[in-house]
Amino acid sequence: MEPQAALQRLKGGPFRAGNLGFAQIDHHRRLRQGLGEVIFGENKTIEQILAIATEAGVGGAPVLITRLQPEKSAGLSVAFPTGRANAAARTFILHPPPPLAAGTGTPHVAIVAAGTSDLSVAEEAAEVCVAMGVPCERYYDVGVAGIHRLLQRVEALQAATALVVVAGMEGALPSVVAGLLGRPVFAVPTSVGYGASFGGVSALLAMLNSCAPGVSVVNIDNGFSAAFAACQVVRAVWAASAISP
Amino acid sequence: MEPQAALQRLKGGPFRAGNLGFAQIDHHRRLRQGLGEVIFGENKTIEQILAIATEAGVGGAPVLITRLQPEKSAGLSVAFPTGRANAAARTFILHPPPPLAAGTGTPHVAIVAAGTSDLSVAEEAAEVCVAMGVPCERYYDVGVAGIHRLLQRVEALQAATALVVVAGMEGALPSVVAGLLGRPVFAVPTSVGYGASFGGVSALLAMLNSCAPGVSVVNIDNGFSAAFAACQVVRAVWAASAISP
Amino acid sequence: MEPQAALQRLKGGPFRAGNLGFAQIDHHRRLRQGLGEVIFGENKTIEQILAIATEAGVGGAPVLITRLQPEKSAGLSVAFPTGRANAAARTFILHPPPPLAAGTGTPHVAIVAAGTSDLSVAEEAAEVCVAMGVPCERYYDVGVAGIHRLLQRVEALQAATALVVVAGMEGALPSVVAGLLGRPVFAVPTSVGYGASFGGVSALLAMLNSCAPGVSVVNIDNGFSAAFAACQVVRAVWAASAISP
Amino acid sequence: MEPQAALQRLKGGPFRAGNLGFAQIDHHRRLRQGLGEVIFGENKTIEQILAIATEAGVGGAPVLITRLQPEKSAGLSVAFPTGRANAAARTFILHPPPPLAAGTGTPHVAIVAAGTSDLSVAEEAAEVCVAMGVPCERYYDVGVAGIHRLLQRVEALQAATALVVVAGMEGALPSVVAGLLGRPVFAVPTSVGYGASFGGVSALLAMLNSCAPGVSVVNIDNGFSAAFAACQVVRAVWAASAISP
Amino acid sequence: MEPQAALQRLKGGPFRAGNLGFAQIDHHRRLRQGLGEVIFGENKTIEQILAIATEAGVGGAPVLITRLQPEKSAGLSVAFPTGRANAAARTFILHPPPPLAAGTGTPHVAIVAAGTSDLSVAEEAAEVCVAMGVPCERYYDVGVAGIHRLLQRVEALQAATALVVVAGMEGALPSVVAGLLGRPVFAVPTSVGYGASFGGVSALLAMLNSCAPGVSVVNIDNGFSAAFAACQVVRAVWAASAISP
Amino acid sequence: MEPQAALQRLKGGPFRAGNLGFAQIDHHRRLRQGLGEVIFGENKTIEQILAIATEAGVGGAPVLITRLQPEKSAGLSVAFPTGRANAAARTFILHPPPPLAAGTGTPHVAIVAAGTSDLSVAEEAAEVCVAMGVPCERYYDVGVAGIHRLLQRVEALQAATALVVVAGMEGALPSVVAGLLGRPVFAVPTSVGYGASFGGVSALLAMLNSCAPGVSVVNIDNGFSAAFAACQVVRAVWAASAISP
Amino acid sequence: MEPQAALQRLKGGPFRAGNLGFAQIDHHRRLRQGLGEVIFGENKTIEQILAIATEAGVGGAPVLITRLQPEKSAGLSVAFPTGRANAAARTFILHPPPPLAAGTGTPHVAIVAAGTSDLSVAEEAAEVCVAMGVPCERYYDVGVAGIHRLLQRVEALQAATALVVVAGMEGALPSVVAGLLGRPVFAVPTSVGYGASFGGVSALLAMLNSCAPGVSVVNIDNGFSAAFAACQVVRAVWAASAISP
Amino acid sequence: MEPQAALQRLKGGPFRAGNLGFAQIDHHRRLRQGLGEVIFGENKTIEQILAIATEAGVGGAPVLITRLQPEKSAGLSVAFPTGRANAAARTFILHPPPPLAAGTGTPHVAIVAAGTSDLSVAEEAAEVCVAMGVPCERYYDVGVAGIHRLLQRVEALQAATALVVVAGMEGALPSVVAGLLGRPVFAVPTSVGYGASFGGVSALLAMLNSCAPGVSVVNIDNGFSAAFAACQVVRAVWAASAISP
Fold first, then answer.
1. Is B46 exposed, middle or buried (0-12, 13-18, 19+ CB in 10 A)?
2. Is C102 within the bounds of a domain?
3. pLDDT one-digit tens code per residue, A187-230
4. In this complex, is the C-beta atom of C145 within 8 Å of any C-beta atom belonging to chain A?
5. Whole-structure pTM value
6. CATH of the domain at F125
7. D113 shares a domain with D81
8. Would you place residue B2 in the very low, low, confident or very high pLDDT band (cuts 50, 70, 90)?
9. Is residue H115 part of a domain?
10. Closest residue, chain A, to B214 (C-alpha)
């Protein structure tokens, strides 16, 4: 019980950041939240990313980098050959923990996606699970316009501890899923669509208006945050039980 | 064939309106479109409604009045004791045609509603069918958060010639219905909801972004226009076949 | 009547999809809805399109591919020399059914377009009719700012079973058309315009607020879905009569 | 020519306002713009209106009061028995100039309204003409869903010097009118409608996107400003010709 | 293990609803989701509410009724004297489970509210916890404009399993809270504010754009759904451990 | 008076268009509206523009082409060496009428622009005047943040028959101008600005809410339509007087 | 210098609030910000207001209450006879400091309002100055549609240390004022207007897009916050000079 | 006192601009507002910028150029070797005043930024201070998701005379800062974010709804105007005291 208390004090302790000049690394975050530095790669140069990742990965801590253009991902693979790149997800993980299989009874995250166009966002979510060391299962291409495809997977879905549900266009999938199950559903609207989809706003609004209770929503295309929340649920289960991997 | 030709000429003929001072009655509309005058009752006085209905109903033509407050509906029932009032639908029909049962094989309209709060709009749609002499079947309380309820009705729904699908909140029902069937789906978003439902806008956007082809959408709460379109489909079938009632 | 019943059971039967890894083909859809797989080509690679089209077209079923950039269309023409490419429509049809002329009395779809800038969307609608084996007639460049052009065509338009009406900017054409005729009007707002057209939103809103009953609306630039619905109307007529081609 | 010059100097002269404590009266405005003080009555008390109107009407200048609730209008009629009240327009004119008939060849304003619900806005426009001493002609209930009604009036409309065109819902009427004529069209969207009419925004957007050149637009329900502009056109004609009444 | 399996089969079983004419009761929902029928009371009559609650509460199942006006709440207290009314929350619980204290180490929900105006929504969340038998702790009036108030409570907040964070106006509280802790934060924007708060939309957008990962958002004023999700997290912990009360 | 009558009949006569396959030329429009075909050049190929311009310019009628990219303008200058190109305005006029100087007392249009960034839209308006044979005067760089610049020009502005006022950002200039003068003001919002200018929407809204009566508004960047309306005012003056050039 | 240091430490010290059960009073705020508790009265009961005001006013500290309905203001006047009520401003000040005249050279706030309808917001701003002990001068009814009225006051306005500029409709006044002067302008959009004013949004957007530098904006109708900021400027001047009253 | 009076007269004097053909330079602005010409460089050619800067810089007046692409900045550095370029800020200052250190007690501006992505806007603000000769201090990377970072800087921040607070995404930083301090906070929303950040609109709305009084807001990414206002506050302090540098 003593190390728990120490950890507790640590979590609330003063901010101790690694100062990099153009960025301050918060080495305590992994203790507080289960995942260390996450680098939003889209508008950073490869040099900036390398510098932050190196500093943040001191001691072998996993570092997740998201929204990577292919050439930056390639650069990272050269610099960190043992890192994990996922082209569909546009992510790279420095010091990835070993991926975990979700067996029967293992607390895990289910990632459910409506269409093939939502794949990139769903895969980003899956890589967050990898970076946080949480098992996950994928359920793709089960959109509501062919409802049979989802219904065939319901029994399997019932085993999940938390769900990330990804959909664009009319964003109806989270409502249907949450109506069938009893676990928290983190809904991710995607920018898939055109015209009155308004870059994902229509899907976002549909999810916020879900008639199924327990659906909560993150920003458009934000697979990262939804998976982060789902992993926090699994980690809460681990903290209270003996089932953690 | 000759009366057909005469009718054809009549349909395209010069506008011949009954002039009432504050409203001009188009006595040709019933020939052109299958339903005579429709009176939007919400902002009209009972006196105005009585005057227009009397003029429009000359010769026994059915006249539909929509968006009626209870006291106006009561006034109409007194003035026209043989008329048909529907409190839930907030409608009154002067000179209603006899309602028709939708038997096996009879071309008819299916009216599908997600929740009990959408009832008023769904009933307005049903009364339009009555006024246009088209049989209809009701399928209520089959929202997507409890998808089993809809799936139990699919076989029955396949008999419909056209469908009016009414839903508020996330507006997902038309996508699911259209994915299961092969008939035109006229979707009606309702203003049911609060907060980010924006008075029905979220449901409207979801329906416009339906991933199921063949879903077309009308204005928020406009059960009238959706049913009108669905009845036009049935009338097109009648025009081309011998099955009309 | 027996094969009808068998077909009926088939339509409601379990989902039987061809699994392609990155896409699941629903071979039952053509039975349910009158058109098999439709591939939204804009964000897919030519390799993905070829793979899906090949799988979906097994047995000679027509496959429609939309939103094709010119180079993808060229690639498809090389791969499928008997396919049908329409550059204006940005579509390709693998295994196109023979186009059908719309003679007097033949149930058909009328495609009405306001301006020359709306041509691409209108042609997409026309190709949907080809893919579904439904005759169609084109009425182009009949916008409301020169209302005489439309009025000269009214008599011809009265022969249509259903109408697809395409317009950008103020989106007024569907109201005028629906006021003159008695058939369902499927309105397609286009993104033609600038400034306060908001990429077609103004036209969309105008159409949703149509003062003519029976106008229903699809997403901006979605000629596909409007034509799909219009063809479903013609197919409903065929199903109930002996007039089908 | 000399009084012209004097007037010209006066128009550009220093601001000379009657100070009323809670409002400053600009007695020069009538010289500059052809209409003196206009009082927006909606949120003012009857006492405030009486005080401002009395001060502004010194010397017999016409004073227009708009957006009057019935009881305020009644109060004004008691206080100013020779004033002119128009219940439909919700206006009152103190010291109204004599109304003028629009004969053949007389420069005048045409006021065109789509539906009976737009009447109030159209009548406000008509009273502005009265207050500014400009003849006007009314063309009501000529909406686009029954286009014949407008076409029958085209010849008469061609005599107008400027047009005020009032419409709610899809706001299509100004486009059709401006396409038929060669005079400036001042379009007034009205708040008539529900759901996606957004209190007149849909009509406003449609008018701003008019495909007919020469359509300019004022705020929703602002019959006053549109008529003011139209009267300025007639006054420009008067200033340059000998035809003024 | 056998009853578990039976329960599992039950959860996925066919829909078995109590049919009430105007509402269908889903008696399986409590098994699936941990809370039986929830009645949105705002637009229902007291008679409807009594009927649904009676049917849904058969066998002593807890029934939550939300958005109750005072007179309806009074009516329910008369009809069900052992029920639990919360005036601030505008809720009533028929057959309330005994409330549970959140001791050290007990999995529980923390409800954090920014200002006194957000109290009603926060209390609705608290009553959901009561209805679902989950302990909760309240942290009220800790808005970001006086950040010291929140910082004093951080240590206590770290004991929570999941958090519901309620805020109006600029909606900044969830970001600050999620940055300090490592548990899932369910953010509830409230309609508190005026002008550019747009009825809670500004707070909603701020929460969706949270720079702290793991914040997920529900509809404006939807304390119910956020608490439902938070309780599902606690229930997931219970399901995997021996700590459930 | 007889040719007047003949012209009148002509104006209302049947639509007689030159059919070009992809475009129908309305040779009557110049009679009806004072300007023949106007070609929106932005999305047309140089070949299409040349074909339409050649057909529309038959008989030496002026043809205005707007929104021209430089290379298209160059192509037109080669094809039509006597045409008039204005690079700033992005326009070309085939068969331009001789430009007219606006002397004292000559009815003319004043074009007023707030900033140097609004120049392109203002110049488009000026070219419309040239194409319609109406004199115009330019008043540029007189924005409200340095109000002295406008006040120095007031006396000159009072000579105008109608005004086109062009402004971006806060769009305040039309209100100030209309408050100083007694002629119709056609306001053009421009897309100049960033952030919350929303591509000109803020300026558009400001103009629609002008507290100065007689301001009417056209679409964002639509210098064409505003100048067209202003020229119609001048033409109305010409029609009624002997002052036309 | 020592008490300064003590004060400085106090300002940053731990939060010491008076706990009232339903509200926590921050007695340090007056030291930090120059004004103690401000009570938003609109949705609080008179009992709540009395309790908070009594607690907050301990020791004679001024307490400002805003957005008061008349009956609550009356109740406060009875309870606190020496308090200061301003009906137009809808405010009440408990323990008001003596109002200060703004003489030549005295740092003060100028409050500038466009129209008589903006009076309420402007007066709220003035009362904030009173509560904070800062002199202010009023400049009302100087809207841009009669620009002479503002120009006559420029010399007086140049004496102000900071300005609060209040305007509805097109919101142009702050731009004109800031262009003429060299002091910070705090702009307050008001909800005055109708139709496309969208409850003050149009004025808000115009102010955010001001072409005059140094204009900053607060929420719609938020005279309180603008005056608070302006008083902070005057207090910064006092802190650095010997001119404070 | 006499030169003061002369200066005063000068400030209000007639507009005396240097006319450059395509731009009018207002040489009085520096007297009125403390900063001469500011050139928005984004859409101007390097030739235009050079010409305006040369004319505006006559006599050694500082000229600020903003929103410069790198190649334009390079061109300016060649043309004006003694000028000051800031690549991060995208600015150039011709004739920069010497930068000033902000010592204890010196009135100065604090520039506070939430994240590294907001750097460009924050640096633009800093360069405005340089151009206006006002000292400033930077506080970067102190976003609310790691609130400790801000709290460590509070004591230092209390020395500032005015603050510019820059933040994107949920825009919460200004509320927290203003709650801790007693100086005017000028908030700058940035376009940092994606999806429902709507290019900075979410941050803008959050700031307008700040629950901390004294926060005023400028346009998205408008570091220039916020710093301009903050410098005006410092200049007001200078004008009233002997502390100016």
1. middle
2. no
3. 999 998 899 999 999 999 999 999 999 999 999 999 999 999 99
4. no
5. 0.91
6. 3.40.50.1970
7. no
8. low
9. yes
10. A145
Q: Is residue F102 part of a domain?
A: no
Residue D166's identity, in one-letter code, is V
Q: Which residues contact H69 (CB under 8 A, 6 or more apart)?
A: H41, H42, H90
Count of structural domains, chain F? 2
pLDDT tens, position by position, A107-155: 999 999 998 788 899 999 999 999 999 999 999 888 888 888 888 888 8
Q: Which of F40, F120, F208 to mutate to test the interface with C (most CBs of C within 10 A)?
A: F40
Q: How confident is the model at residue A245 (pLDDT cuts 50, 70, 90)?
A: low
Residues F122 and F152 in one domain: yes
* Among candidate residues G69, H24, G84, the one with its CA nearest the CA of residue F152: H24
Higher pLDDT, E105 or D17: E105
Mark whether D and C touch (3+ CB pairs within 8 Å): yes
The DSSP 8-state label assigned to residue F117 in this structure reads G
Q: Is B3 helix (H, G, I), strand (E, B) or coil?
A: helix
Please report residues of D whose CB lies closer than 8 A to that of F242: 241
Same domain, H52 and H130: no
Distance CA F63, CA F91 (A): 10
User: Does B6 score more than 60 pLDDT?
Assistant: no
DSSP code string of B165-219: EEE-TT--HHHHHHHH-SS-EEEEE-----GGGGGGHHHHHHHHT-SSTTEEE--
Residues E138 and E86 in one domain: no
Tell me the ipTM for this assembly: 0.89
CA distance G156 to chain F (A): 17
Residue E101 lies in a domain: no
- E-H interface: how many C-beta pairs under 8 angstroms? 121
Share of chain F above pLDDT 90, in %: 56
pLDDT in tens, H37-77: 788 998 888 988 998 888 888 888 899 999 999 999 999 99
pLDDT exceeds cutoff 80 at D236: yes
The one-letter amino acid code at C26 reads: D
Last residue of a domain, one of A32, A64, A94: A94
Same domain, F134 and F228: yes
A65 to chain B nearest CA, in Å? 32
Mean pLDDT value of segment E56-76: 92
**Tens-digit pLDDT profile for residues D56-84:** 888 888 999 999 999 999 999 999 999 99
Percent of chain G at pLDDT exceeding 70:
85
DSSP assigned state of D40: E
Q: Do G81 and G119 belong to one domain? A: no
Residues of H in contact with F197 (CB under 8 A): 219
Least confident of C35-39, F102-106, G162-166: F102-106
Q: Are B133 and B222 part of one and the same domain?
A: yes
**Do C142 and C199 sit in the same domain of this protein?**
yes
Q: What is the largest CA-CA distance in chain E?
A: 58
**pLDDT bucket at D243, cuts 50 / 70 / 90:** low
Contacts for A239 with CB less than 8 Å, ≥ 6 apart = none
> Which uninterrupted H or E stretch holds A120?
helix A119-132
Distance, CA of B61 to CA of E92 (rounded, Å): 51
Q: Which domain holds residue A193?
A: 109-241
Nearest-CA distance H225 → chain G (Å)? 5
| Residue G77 burial by Cβ neighbours in a 10 Å radius (0-12, 13-18, 19+) | middle
Selected for mutation to probe chain C from D170, D192, D204, D210 (highest C CB count within 10 Å) is D170
G62, G94, G126 — which closes off a domain? G94
Q: What is the average pLDDT across H170-183?
A: 93
D185-189: strand order across its sheet: D136-139, D109-113, D162-167, D185-189, D215-217, F215-217, F185-189, F162-167, F109-113, F136-139
Distance CA H228, CA H131 (A): 10
Q: Which residues of F touch D184 (CB under 8 A)?
A: 184, 229, 232-233, 236
